[in-house]
Amino acid sequence: MPQLNPNPWLFIMLTSWLTFTLIMQPKLLTFTLPNTSPNKTTQTTKTTPWPWPWT
């Protein structure tokens, strides 16, 4: 059963993950999103309790 032999696949998997984390990820993280939203001030609203008819 060749799929139980981790010799070639383990090396390929580790190499691909190392390539992604060390080379590709820092390059991808330098991009900025074009649709950044401006900082909005939070408005506090006064809430009133619900007038329950049975109380």
Overview of this protein structure:
GO terms for molecular function: proton transmembrane transporter activity. Belongs to the ATPase protein 8 family. Residues 35-55 are annotated as: Disordered. InterPro entries: ATP8_metazoa, ATPase_protein_8. The chain crosses the membrane at residues 6-24. This protein has 55 residues and is mainly alpha-helical. The chain is elongated. The chain has one helix at residues 7-29. The protein contains one helix and no strands. 42% of the residues lie in helices and 0% in strands.
Q: Which percent band covers the strand fraction?
A: under 5%
- Rg (C-alpha, Å): 27 Å
**Would you tell me the structural class of the helices and strands?**
mainly alpha
Task: State the helical fraction.
Answer: 40-55%
Average pLDDT taken over every residue: 80
Shape: elongated
Task: Report low-confidence residues grouped into runs of 5 or more.
Answer: none
Q: What is the number of E strands?
A: 0
Individual helix count: 1
What is the makeup of the main sheet?
Answer: none
Span between termini: 72 Å
**Elements, N to C (H/E):** H
InterPro entries: ATP8_metazoa, ATPase_protein_8
Family: Belongs to the ATPase protein 8 family.
Membrane topology: Single-pass membrane protein
Keywords: ATP synthesis, CF(0), Hydrogen ion transport, Ion transport, Membrane, Mitochondrion, Transmembrane, Transmembrane helix, Transport
